[in-house]
Amino acid sequence: MPKAKQPAVMALFRTPQALLDAVRTVRERGYRGIDALTPYPVHGLPEALGLKVSWMPRITKTFFFVGAGLGFYFEYWAMAVTWPINVAGKPYFSIPAFMPVTFECGILTTGILTFLTLFAADRLRPKPSFKALDPRITNDRFALLIPTGFEGPAPATRLLEEMGALEVRELHV
Amino acid sequence: MSQGHPENTAQQHPMALEATPPIYRADMTLTQVTRDIVAPLDRRPNGWWWFGFLISITLLAIGASAVVYQFREGLGILGLTYPEMWGTYIVDFVFWIGIGHAGTLISAILFLFRQRWRTAINRAAEAMTIFAVVCAGLFPLLHVGRTLLAYWLIPYPNFRQLWVNFRSPLIWDVFAVSTYATVSLLFWYLGMVPDLATVRDHKPGKWARRVYGFFAMNWRGTARDWHHYESAYGMLAAIATPLVLSVHSNVSMDFATSTAPGWHSTIFPPYFVAGAIFSGFAMVITLMVIVRKIYDLEDYLTVDHMEMMCKIMLVTSLIVAYAYATEMFNAWYTSDIYERNRFYGVHFGLTWTFFTGPYAYAAALMVICNVLTPQLLWIRRLRRSMPVMFVISLIANLGMWFERYTIIVSSQARQFLPSSFGYYRPTRFDYAVLAGSFGLFFTLFLLFVRFVPVIAVAEVKAVLRQPVGEPAAVMEESHA
Amino acid sequence: MSSLHDTAVIKIEDPGPAQISPRLRRGFALAAGVGIVFTVLGLFLEPHRAWSGYLVNYLYFLILGMAGLFLTALHYAAGATWSIPFRRIAESLTRYLPIAALSTVVLVFGFKDIYPWAAGTVHFHRATKTAWFGYGFTAGRLIIFSALWALCGWIFVRRSLNQDAAWRRGAATNWEPRRVPGGFGKIPSFNGRFSAAFLLFFAITFSLAAIDWLMSLEPNWNTTMYAVYIFAGLFEAGLALVLLISVLLRRRGSMGQILRDHHYVDLARMLHAFSIFMVYIGFEQYLLIWYANYPSEAVYYHQRIVGGWGYVLLFLLFAKWVIPFTVLLNQKIRKNEKALIAIASLVLFAEWVDLYWLVMPVTHAHFVLPNWAVIAELLAFLGLFGWAVTSFLARNSPVPVGDPRLVNAVAGDYL
User: Fold this and answer.
1) What residue numbers bound the domain in which A106 lies?
2) Test mutation, A63, A94, A101, A117, chain B, max B CBs within 10 A
3) Distance from CA of C232 to the nearest CA of B (A)
4) B116: which DSSP letter?
5) DSSP label at A91?
6) How many domains are contained in chain A?
7) ipTM > 0.85 for the complex
8) pLDDT recorded at residue B466
9) How many domains are there within chain B?
10) What CATH number does residue A161 fall under?
């Protein structure tokens, strides 16, 4: 369900350091719900914004064990339960021979599900009509986005200009 | 950078932190990276590109006609005959899968080892991986003879309630190669999403924007997005690392699980992996020497980058040499007369030996190209010279093809009893299909450099010297 | 990625020699003394069992010493920065190598009790192989190899200590790789080149030695993976021991401010990776032999699985891979000193069990626990090893303070 657009101000900075400083100051002043847009992952930015450690690794490990477990169980069922066939005298339930496919099942499951989870987490989807807030964000500028809510854009704009923003703009996101 | 260490004058003293060496030119800016990498996508391709594309398409057409002819006539057009039932198709399969391994090594293992220089080559190397796996995957499909029924290799619920034999190494291969193809593709695409967004935001032309916008998947670049993105990327790298070990190990087990002398060798899995990385890096070097020249990317694919790849080639060449030596030593050491006969031909009064028999040329090429010529890379001047490394990388790939030829073909020629002795000669169709696979590979690669940023823009930007304190004029020029 | 630039100046303080209590060193010396007495008794009273046990214990500590040498050389050859704080600890392990070389000489006297080719119970039908396993030739090459290893260890340690001394004097050394002007490539130093040469030498000699020591227990059996398997064990156990010693020293405050959490994380990550390498090599070797089911080859695993030995193999699977792998999968545990001590100790114990499992089934069809003679040998070698390592660390700084790139390693500037 699309949320109603919120008023916000966006400031562009020249360097990641300027952005980091601005983020810290703005958070100290009590602004919440701020976000930063950068052309590449800036080291220390998640911490400055107070983002929690990503839950992605934990979920990925779960995918691996579930995928590998199901793969192994399926091999066992197909080879030893539903229709055991003697091939080259190998035991029906051949643990060593099941290992390669077990491993690959784990990896395949992890790869696909991690990818899809990321798409869900970052709300990625094909969007041919995408309109960038500012094309420079994917090039060489570091943007800070502050929702302005009831107090209006003026104080935030002033603060950002004090922080040395190259330009500050009002918009709705 | 570090000539002249700080003068150490006291027992306890502050030492200056040696500056981290810049991976790219110290004065390179974010703007410039975007421009350098995205601009070639706007230009029409130059004559060199068309020249290469024409040759590749021609080769592809030759290979395709041979394949069509094979569909009509059957596998008899190839050199396959008892006891040599695995011929160049399997050689080509192993060869191409091996080429792919460098891409995953660069993108996953070097990522985990935090080798920042990988940012210049990972995109192209991953693309190479995918195209190489595509080429590799075709060969078993052709080799099964009834290609239309190749889907039988996949376990799917069917009317006869039969499942594939999971205890067979060939099925391990099906799983390994398809997993490898899938995960490599996802990894490659994931790495590309932010760059496609950059192209989307900077490309003139409505339709181009829409197409790149489609594939850029609504990428905005918020800190939250990057946060999960980096984490997911790291996890994919973590699973791709054991995956790359497993894939060529599984390929090697197609041979090593058998009892055939020359095939049954426990060192095969790591030996194949090292050989794969060797040949893969050789191919990356071949491609990068050309790409950096034609696309003016000398600032990104610097001599230092190329030298690092040469070093990895040298190390893997030594590992491969170790494996050859182990095989030779064990063939001497073993009490198994068949194994000794395979290598040294001392029984049954045979004159056939590893080095004087009909396959001696292949074995000699393998040693010369994979062990001897790469030793030139010990010399610093040579491993920093583009023409030298280009030639060495071509030689290495020739050698790696003959290594697989030696392993696969010449081992089948000397099985246990003389009734299973034979000789294999590839036909022109074998060579045509091999040429076709090169055509396919280069066609795909040329299309890749035409439509996709060849260098990972966001990753390069992340390791640049931060453009702090730069004059505004420099920064603004792109927006003029 | 490079946010640590703010800390442009870092103080490297010489932590001085490690604080190792003299009681510990005396304890090691005592263990060595008592152990040697009972070892000698064992070798005469129960030669068969005791010589096999001697091989296990001799190899175990030799492998640990070699691991120190190998890790030092690998560090230099790779031009690595992150591992600098651990280098001296790896170097300290090589101090045992001269003792190992001497115990190789002792081993020669047990050839007849250990190896069928020396006892004359196996005859090769080929003159070359008979010559290869001639008493003198085999003894000679093993002694020469171990002496050369000890020499290489001495060279590494010597240069490293000289560098420290130069730093204390305030003199600059140019023994570190230099940067290419304007680039990020490195021009290898003498250490780098010597290490590359050593690693080649190591690959050849260690593989041949692994065949002589262990594979020739069954002289008509062979596999190409064998030396790689022993090497994988060496790598994993070596990382575990360096991790263990560094954690213990840091808990006693001997590492100054140099060793930080991120170094542990990296070393633990390496241990994690090489526990995977270990199981990869071990499993592939098993899988291929199991699958081919070639009688003359499968007998190796048959001997080591029936008669209770299979449980040992299962233990190895868990101790060398399943437990380290699952525990170290958790990022937080890689900083937890107690957990690291537990994991490293487990891996080290498992390496000993691995060698026991490789050697003992040859002469014992049924599982046997180590008897008094084997325990005495373990005590003797442990005492000698511990004494050599702790004496070195008690005299020298446990970090290579003279390394000009130590600051970068401390700052995590390679991240």
Assistant:
1) 56-121
2) A101
3) 12
4) G
5) -
6) 2
7) yes
8) 57
9) 1
10) 3.30.70
